Structures are given as structure tokens and as C-alpha cells.
Sequence to fold (196 residues):
Amino acid sequence: MINAGDGRAEHPTQALLDALTIRRRKGRIHGQTIVICGDIAHSRVARSNIYLLNAMGARVRLVAPPTLLPKDVDRLGVEVFHRMDEGLKGADVVMMLRLQQERMKGAFLPSLREYYKFWGLTREKLAAAKEDVLIMHPGPMNRGVEIASDVADDLDRSAIEEQVEMGVAVRMACIDVLTRGLPQRANADNSEGTKS
Fold:
């Protein structure tokens, strides 16, 4: 079975493709400071990335308003920040997440405008990160909510298009690994048909 994402719990293939993208662009994951920003509480991508990146030796930080952090955040082995300038300081990789409004029940933030002002990724906020910071986003993006267009489209720093490309490769590899060595039913059915 391949878990292609289940509700807000986990999204393992997304974490695999994100790790592959980081490794291709940065050369390694171990020792990298990777910051995940946004709606952590409702994101299956965040949880799977936290598990995988921690296992691979990254230093994982979360940046979000308190209302968008999971209740068990203290058990996830991450550093938590509520201010972008503090959380992005010295970051090697910044992964933005969209607001999962379809999963929110209640008021988690005053307005989208205020959210963007404090937690949206802009060039000004990105200045706290390393000069060669890698920008990621699992999509779909809400430009002007969690990320500015000029940041998302930065050809030198953004790996968002590469993430999409790696998604196809990683998911094909998962299917290949799981189906390798299985009997070829279609071929068996065809050969039986020609014998009769």
C-alpha cells in the first residue's frame, strides 16, 4: 500500500520528494536548518516532513501563529517560533505551507491580510535566512497569502517547480518498488488465451 496522503495526518510521498529536492539542490540533508512555515496544525505535509527530516539529521524549525500549531508540537523534536524574523534566521531551506481553510473549524486567524503581514514569505522576511536559501512549497500556492509571487518565482532560490517534477519521479519509484517481482497477470492471461 502507498499512502498518498490521508487527511491531515500524513503525506509520506510528499516528504520523500521534498527530501530528494533538498538533497539535489543542497547536496545533503544532515545538518541543514529547514524551516517549515504556515498552517502546521492542519498539514499532513508538515507532519511527514518533520518525521523524515528529523530522521535524516536536519535541524527542523516551525514558524506559525500559536493557533496553527498542533497540540503535540512539543513531542515532535522541533524548534518552535512565532515570528518569521526569528525562525528564518540562518535557514538553509524555507518550506511554506498553505492555509488549509477547508480543515479549519473556528477562527484561527483574524484575516488573510494580517496573516500575510506577519507570516507570509516576502523578500524582506527572507533576508534573515542564508543568502543561498532554498524556497519550497508543496502547492497549491496562495500567492499574497503565504508567499509573495516574486519569492515563489525566484529562479535562483525557488525549487517549487522542481518539487513538482520530483513528485512524478518519486511516486513512479514507489510504484515500481512495490510492483517489482509481482507476476505479470496480463501476460499470463494473454498466453492462456492463445493456447486454447
Remarks:
- Residues 160-179 form the longest helix (20 residues).
- The mean pLDDT is 88.
- Strands lie at 33-37, 59-63, 79-81, 93-96, 134-136.
- The CA atoms of residues 20 and 42 lie 23 Å apart.
